[in-house]
Design goal:
439 residues; mainly alpha; Growth Hormone, Chain: A
Length: 439
C-alpha cells in the first residue's frame, strides 16, 4: 500500500498540469524554444571583453547603460501593451528584435555589433509587458498558478540546453549562435500567433471569471487603481527587497567563492554551483507547486523569503565546498517557492485594461532593488568584507518575510474573494467537465 501511495503522489506531481487550457501548453513550449536559443545575452560580458577587447570597467559601464535603456523600453512597452493589440505587439517587436540579431551574425565582431545588440535587446524588453499580459489573457484565473509554474519550468529546461550550446558555439561559431537565437525566437512567435487563444472576460463561463480582472476605463490613472488596491503597492516594494537579496547569487557569490577557494578553483566551483541551481529548479518546480498547493500566494512568498535569507547563514565563514551546495539547494528552493507565489499574484489583482502598465511598474521595483544591491553590497565588501554582506542579506530576508506576512492580512481585506479557495485547488470549468466524465 505504501508503494502505491508513493507512486500515486509521484503521479500527482505531473498530473497537476493536466486539464489546463491549450494556450497554457503552447506558452510552455514557446518559452522552452525561446530559452533554448538564449545564447547571446548571458554571454554579453564575454563578447565585450574577449571578442571586442574592452576592459571590464568599460564593459561594466556599457552594461549599466544598457540596463537603463532596457528599463525605459519596458516602461514604454507597458504603456503600449495597454493601448494596442498585445499579440500584434509581440509579433512586431519580436520581428524587429530578430532583424537586429541576424544583423549581428552578418558583421564581424566590431563596435557596430554592440549597437545591433542593444537595439535587439531594447525591442525584446519592450515586448515583456505584452507577453506577461498575454499569459494572463490566454489563461483562466483558476489555472494561473500552474501555468506560471509550467512556463518557468519550460524556461529553465530550455535555458539549460541553451547554456551548453552557448559554450560550444562561442569561440568559433558566434555567428551561428546569433542565427539560432533569432530562429528560436521567431519560431516561438509563430506558435503564439497561430495557437494561443485570448479569453475575453465577457465570453468566459461564470465560474471561470475573476471580478478583479474586469476591464476598467483605460484612461483611469494607474496610480488611482494602485491607491484603491494598496496591497499591490506593498507587494512591489517588498519584492524590490527580494530582488536585492536574490541578485547576490550572481554578484556577491561568485567573488565570495573565489575569495574562499582562490580564483582558479573558485571560478570552476561557481560553475558547478550554477549548474546545481538549474538542476534543482527543474526538479523542484513541479514538486513544490504540488506540495504547497494548499497555500495562498503571499503565504508561499513568506516561506520563500525566510528560506532566501536563511540560506546565506549556511555559507557564513564557510570553508568547505559541500556547504555551498547545501546553500544553493536552500537558495533555489526559496527561488522556486517565491516564483510560484509571486508570478501569478498581480495577474489576479489588476484589471485587464491596465496589465501592461502595472507589469512595467513591477519591473521597475525589481530593477531598483537589484541595481541598488550592486552598489551597496560592493561598497560593503570593499570596506568591511563578506561577513557584513552575508549578515545584511540574512536580516533583509527576515524583514521581507515579516512585511509579506503583514501584507497578507491587508490583501485578504482588499481581495476577499481570492481567499475562498487556495489558487492551486481552484478548478476551471474544463477541469470540472473532465472530472464529471470520469465519474
Amino acid at each position: 500500500m505504501e508503494k502505491e501511495s508513493l507512486r500515486q503522489k509521484f503521479a500527482n506531481i505531473f498530473n497537476q498540469y493536466r486539464g489546463l487550457s491549450k494556450s497554457a501548453y503552447v506558452l510552455f513550449f514557446a518559452r522552452l524554444v525561446t530559452s533554448m536559443g538564449a545564447f547571446i545575452f548571458p554571454m554579453l560580458t564575454l563578447i565585450l571583453t574577449i571578442k571586442l577587447g574592452y576592459t571590464m570597467l568599460y564593459a561594466g559601464s556599457l552594461m549599466a547603460i544598457v540596463a537603463v535603456l532596457m528599463l525605459v523600453g519596458n516602461l514604454i512597452g507597458g504603456k503600449l501593451a495597454d493601448k494596442f493589440n498585445r499579440k500584434k505587439m509581440i509579433i512586431i517587436l519580436d520581428v524587429l528584435s530578430v532583424i537586429f540579431f541576424l544583423a549581428c551574425a552578418i558583421v564581424q565582431p566590431q563596435e557596430i555589433m554592440i549597437y545591433f545588440l542593444i537595439a535587439s535587446g531594447f525591442f525584446a524588453t519592450m515586448e515583456g509587458p505584452a507577453f506577461d499580459a498575454l499569459i494572463a489573457e490566454a489563461t483562466l484565473p483558476a489555472e494561473r498558478e500552474k501555468v506560471f509554474s509550467l512556463s518557468y519550468l519550460g524556461f529553465n529546461l530550455g535555458f539549460a540546453f541553451g547554456a551548453a550550446m552557448a559554450g560550444l558555439l562561442f569561440t568559433n561559431y558566434l555567428s551561428l549562435a546569433f542565427i539560432l537565437d533569432g530562429l528560436t525566437t521567431i519560431t516561438s512567435t509563430f506558435m503564439i500567433i497561430f495557437m494561443v487563444k485570448v479569453y475575453k472576460h465577457d465570453e468566459m463561463k461564470e465560474g471561470d471569471k475573476n471580478e478583479y480582472e474586469e476591464h476598467m476605463d483605460e484612461k483611469k490613472s494607474i496610480f488611482k487603481i494602485l491607491g484603491e488596491r494598496k496591497s499591490i503597492i506593498y507587494f512591489i516594494l517588498i519584492s524590490s527587497i527580494g530582488a536585492f537579496i536574490y541578485q547576490q547569487w550572481t554578484f556577491t557569490l561568485p567573488t565570495y567563492v573565489a575569495h574562499v577557494f582562490g580564483e582558479d578553483l573558485g571560478v570552476k566551483y561557481y560553475g558547478f554551483i550554477s549548474s546545481a541551481n538549474g538542476l534543482v529548479v527543474i526538479i523542484m518546480t513541479p514538486i513544490m507547486t504540488y506540495v504547497l498547493r494548499k497555500k495562498y500566494e503571499l503565504q508561499k512568498m513568506t516561506i520563500g523569503a525566510i528560506l532566501l535569507g536563511a540560506s546565506f547563514i549556511i555559507i557564513f565563514r564557510a570553508s568547505a565546498l559541500y556547504l555551498f551546495f547545501i546553500f544553493i539547494l536552500v537558495f533555489t528552493l526559496a527561488e522556486v517557492i517565491n516564483m510560484i507565489g509571486s508570478a501569478p499574484y498581480m495577474s489576479r489583482r489588476v484589471p485587464g485594461s491596465h496589465r501592461g502598465r502595472l507589469s512595467s511598474i513591477g519591473f521597475l521595483g525589481y530593477f531598483v532593488g537589484a541595481n541598488v544591491s550592486y552598489v551597496i553590497c560592493g561598497l560593503i565588501i570593499d570596506n568591511l568584507g563578506y561577513d557584513y554582506v552575508l549578515g545584511l542579506l540574512v536580516i533583509l530576508g527576515l524583514i521581507q518575510a515579516v512585511l509579506i506576512y503583514l501584507n497578507y492580512a491587508l490583501d485578504r481585506k482588499i481581495f476577499p474573494k481570492l481567499y475562498i479557495t487556495p489558487p492551486s485547488l481552484m478548478k476551471t470549468s474544463l477541469m470540472k467537465e473532465r472530472e464529471s466524465q470520469k465519474d
